[in-house]
């Protein structure tokens, strides 16, 4: 888990020592201004060693497999060599102020972040001294006093640097552990860290909350103690799986301090060292009793609703089917009365017979529409790839008489190929086009059916030049039996658009309207390209 640069910068700022602390560290090492001058004096003399120093260090690191594995990226190795050359310049620049100190802290944090142990850092200083000191001896010749002064200054700055880098390394390590501990404790799921024998080493607060045991009481005890008696063999099986280096997850019965069993969802993983040996086991679990109860109640409720829907659909079908026969008899005899006794009775009788014939006829239409409505979800055909143009042509053919009588003109865009129930698609187009013919204005109806491909779906439109609808009624018109006009003004049962809505929703789409009074209307509906791939809107 690497920290982002802004976080690293903040971390380095937090650990940067004050000027007094820096001076205190220099005093302990007896690092004086004279040492700074000596190092600065050596800078130009040792400059030719920069590249050799970086190459030597790179070869040293590459000779150790563990180190080579961490620096397998050639770009990373190149950056490391560049930083070593930069460091070589800085260490002999004679300026050991705030910028220099931060650069040393940065080294420590970088080593901690990429997982290199401090011994590699100390090994790098050994190579540094091994390369520089012989060269200094060569430069001073036989001047032992001068060599000693230079050597002391070089050793002091090396110790000053290593102390800064190592303190940064351990500070970053501590900060990372603090963050991980915070994540561990704040996890809503119960988390247990156990050894390879199953004894609990650490538990977070959620373990105590779920099990009822105090955290201290669980440390050192077998994790198996939390198991319910309902699981005699499962624990051993899953434990063998995890200790073998695998993972286990699933439902398991556990027991709390009060002795009550509860169902949990558990996930167990093995923790391995660098050699691949399992050293610890991490178990995460949560009490899913309430979830299971809710799930079971929901399943039961769903089944009850499904049964209720089946009964209602059966009732609607039987009622509408069985009602048609006596209704046909009523309609037939009232029509017979109208033909035989019209104008032979008084005006009231003629009016009453008319009401009876009209009522029976409308009731027949209503029952037929109800039967159609009840069968959309249960008697629809299987979705299959089809040409929507076929459904549209059938709908126009069914409306041929109404189109001719009204002088309507129906045009269309090229229609797509998609998964649908062709019969219901025909009904959908027929209802929407028929709507445009029925609710026409003073001019002949002009109706256009459009189709536009969107992401994962087709957007269809049925546009007319009719009387239009006020926005206040946009939702109402799709509700069954809702009518905006009197039955004598515009005949119908008020079911047509409800049928359209139900058909579109069965196909996984949506339907809506855009309109203004006197300016026609546009009905839009969507259909997925492939049935079942419903597009989620508002995400």
UniProtKB/TrEMBL annotation:
Ranges where the PAC domain occurs: 248-300
Catalytic activity: ATP + protein L-histidine = ADP + protein N-phospho-L-histidine
Enzyme nomenclature, EC number: 2.7.13.3
Topology relative to the membrane: Multi-pass membrane protein
Domain of life: Bacteria
GO cellular component: plasma membrane
InterPro entries in alphabetical order: Globin-like_sf, Globin-sensor_dom, Globin/Proto, HATPase_C_sf, HATPase_dom, His_kinase_dom, HisK_dim/P_dom, HisK_dim/P_sf
GO molecular function ontology, one term from the record: oxygen binding
Location in the cell: Cell inner membrane
Residue ranges occupied by any PAS domain in the UniProt entry: 176-232
Domain Histidine kinase: residue ranges: 318-531
Keyword annotations from UniProtKB, A to Z: Kinase, Phosphoprotein, Transferase
Gene3D superfamilies registered for this protein in UniProt: 1.10.287.130, Globins, Histidine kinase-like ATPase, C-terminal domain, PAS domain
Alphabetical list of NCBIfam families matching this protein: sensory_box
Identification of the protein by name: histidine kinase
Organism listed in the record: Methylotenera oryzisoli
